[in-house]
Amino acid sequence: MKIQWTLVVGLIFALIIAIFATVNVDSVQVNYVFGEARWPLILVILGSVLIGFIISFCFSAFRMYGGKRQMKAVRKDLEAAQVLINEKDAEIIRLKNELREQGASKFITEEISGGDKIQIE
Question: Domain Lipopolysaccharide assembly protein A spans what residues (predicted)?
Answer without folding.
Answer: 24-82
